C-alpha cells in the first residue's frame, strides 16, 4: 500500500492530510449481481472497483446446479462493457443450497473450477430465500462432503422463527444452528456473511482458521438509528437489519483488527427504487458504485486506513485460496456527490448515501 501526503515528513497513517491511497486491487467476497437488464446496469460498477467477486446465487429461480452457475457466469461476462477493468474482472460462482441438493452436485461444483462455495439461506430469511434450507439436518450429507473436500459454506446467519425479535435473529442463529453445526462438522470451511452483531464477531474470533466472516460497508458505517432518521429510510434497510451502536463498534473493531478471519464483502444488493420505497420494501443496500470510498471512510474514522488494504485485498483471497491480485487502485481525497439515482433497466436504482458528499473518490 502506498501513501501520498500533502507534506512529507511528520505524517502518520492516520493523518488526515493524506491525499491519495493506492492499494492492491480488492475483491468483493459477497455480491448480488442479479440478471438481465439489472445485471447489465450494475456489473460495470463492481468491475471498476474490484478484480473479482464471489457472486451470490439467489436468482429467481436460484442457481442450484453447477451447470446453472456456469451459464450465469457467461451472462455476467457478457454483461461487462468493453474496457480494461471489465476485461480482467472475474466472477466466482456459488451454488444455492436446498433441502434436496445432492452430494453429486458438490462433486460437480468442486470439479468445475468456477464454483467457489455453497450459500446457505435459511428458507424465508431474506430476498429469494423461499427455496432455501428448511432444516439444516436435511443437508448433513452434503455438508459432510463439503467438509471433506474443503468447499466453503457461506451462511446467511439468521433464524426465521417469527417469535424471535428481528434484532436477535443473528445471535440466536449462532446459538441454535452454527455452534451445533461446527460441533458436528468441526473442519467445515464456513463464512458467516455480513456480520451485524458483537456475538457474530465473537463467534468468528473463537473458532478455528476454517471459519471467517465478511463485513459490509453499510454495517460498518450505520447503526439502526439510520433506519428512522427523521422518518423511515428504506434505502438503509437490509438483512440482517442494522443493529445498535455497540454492535457497529464491534464490527469496526473486527474490521480494523488485522485479523485475517474478517474480510470485505459488500452484500451490494440492488433493488428497483419502487421496490424499496414501498409498503413492504425489499431488503438491500446498493454499494457497488462506491464501495471502496465507503470502506475508506469507515476505516479512516477508526484511525486505521493502514488496515484497509489487507482487509479488502488480501484476506478474502487468502481464505478462498486465490492468488492475491497484483494490479492496484487509487483513492484520492476529493469531495464528490453520490448520484440521487442510477439507471436500472426500465427502473432506477438509489445508491446508499444518495445525494450525500463522500470524501474519498476512486480514480
Ligand atoms: O439485504 C439483503 N439483500 N440481504 C440479503 O441477505 C439478500 C439481499 C438481496 O439479495 O437483496
Ligand atoms: Zn447477500
Which tags fit this structure?
binds (4S)-2,6-dioxohexahydropyrimidine-4-carboxylic acid, TIM Barrel, 19% strand, binds zinc ion, alpha/beta
- Number of helices in the DSSP assignment: 12
- The helix content, as a percent range, equals 25-40%
Task: Assign the CATH class.
Answer: Alpha Beta
What is the CATH topology? TIM Barrel
What amount of the residues lies in strands? 15-25%
How many distinct beta strands?
A: 14
Q: What is the mean pLDDT?
A: 95
Ligand names = (4S)-2,6-dioxohexahydropyrimidine-4-carboxylic acid, zinc ion
Task: Summarize the model shown.
With 363 residues, the chain is of the alpha/beta class. It is built from 12 helices and 14 strands.
How would you describe this structure to a colleague?
With 363 residues, the chain is α/β, with parallel strands linked by helices. It has a single domain (26-362), classed as Alpha-Beta Barrel (TIM Barrel), CATH 3.20.20.140. The chain has helices at 36-49, 66-79, 84-88, 103-112, 140-149, 169-184, 198-206, 217-221, 245-255, 273-276, 291-301, 308-320; strands at residues 2-5, 18-24, 27-31, 52-55, 90-96, 115-120, 153-155, 190-192, 211-215, 262-264, 328-337, 342-344, 347-349, 357-362. The strands form three sheets. An eight-stranded parallel sheet has the order 3-4-5-6-7-8-9-10, with helices on both faces. Strands 1-2-11-14 form a four-stranded antiparallel sheet. The chain has a two-stranded antiparallel ribbon with strand order 12-13. Helix 4 packs parallel to helix 5 (140-149). It starts with a strand and ends with a strand. The structure holds (4S)-2,6-dioxohexahydropyrimidine-4-carboxylic acid and zinc ion (ZN). Zinc ion binds at residues 30, 32, 56, 267, 269. Zinc ion (ZN) binds next to loops.
Amino acid at each position: 500500500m502506498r501513501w501520498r501526503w500533502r507534506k512529507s515528513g511528520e505524517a502518520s497513517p492516520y493523518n488526515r492530510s493524506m491525499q491519495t491511497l493506492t492499494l492492491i486491487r480488492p475483491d468483493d467476497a459477497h455480491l448480488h449481481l442479479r440478471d438481465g437488464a439489472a445485471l447489465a446496469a450494475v456489473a460495470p460498477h463492481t468491475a471498476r472497483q474490484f478484480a473479482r467477486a464471489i457472486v451470490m446465487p439467489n436468482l429467481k429461480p436460484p442457481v442450484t446446479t453447477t451447470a446453472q452457475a456456469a451459464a450465469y457466469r457467461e451472462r455476467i461476462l457478457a454483461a461487462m462493457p468493453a474496457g480494461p477493468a471489465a476485461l480482467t474482472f472475474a466472477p466466482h460462482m456459488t451454488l444455492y443450497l436446498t433441502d434436496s441438493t445432492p452430494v453429486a452436485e458438490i462433486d460437480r461444483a468442486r470439479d468445475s473450477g468456477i464454483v467457489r462455495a455453497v450459500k446457505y439461506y435459511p428458507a424465508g430469511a431474506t430476498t429469494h430465500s423461499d427455496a432455501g434450507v428448511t432444516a439444516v439436518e436435511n443437508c448433513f450429507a452434503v455438508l459432510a462432503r463439503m467438509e471433506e473436500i474443503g468447499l466453503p459454506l457461506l451462511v446467511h446467519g439468521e433464524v426465521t422463527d417469527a417469535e424471535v425479535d428481528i434484532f436477535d435473529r443473528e445471535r440466536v442463529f449462532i446459538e441454535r444452528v452454527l455452534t451445533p453445526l461446527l460441533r458436528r462438522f468441526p473442519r467445515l470451511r464456513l463464512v458467516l456473511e455480513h456480520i451485524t452483531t458483537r456475538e457474530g464477531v465473537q463467534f468468528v474470533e473463537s473458532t478455528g482458521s476454517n471459519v471467517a466472516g465478511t463485513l459490509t460497508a453499510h454495517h460498518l458505517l450505520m447503526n439502526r438509528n439510520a433506519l428512522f432518521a427523521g422518518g423511515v429510510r428504506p434505502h438503509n434497510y437490509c438483512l440482517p437489519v442494522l443493529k445498535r451502536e455497540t454492535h457497529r463498534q464491534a464490527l469496526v473493531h473486527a474490521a480494523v483488527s488485522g485479523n485475517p478471519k474478517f474480510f470485505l464483502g459488500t452484500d451490494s444488493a440492488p433493488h428497483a427504487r419502487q421496490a424499496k420505497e414501498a409498503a413492504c420494501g425489499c431488503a438491500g443496500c446498493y454499494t457497488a458504485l462506491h464501495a471502496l470510498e465507503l470502506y475508506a471512510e469507515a476505516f479512516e474514522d477508526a484511525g486505521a486506513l493502514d488496515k484497509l488494504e489487507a482487509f479488502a485485498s488480501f484476506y478474502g483471497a487468502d481464505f478462498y485460496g486465490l492468488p492475491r491480485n497484483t494490479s492496484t487502485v487509487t483513492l484520492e481525497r476529493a469531495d464528490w456527490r453520490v448520484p440521487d439515482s442510477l439507471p436500472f433497466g426500465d427502473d432506477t436504482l438509489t445508491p446508499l448515501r444518495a445525494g450525500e458528499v463522500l470524501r474519498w473518490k476512486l480514480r
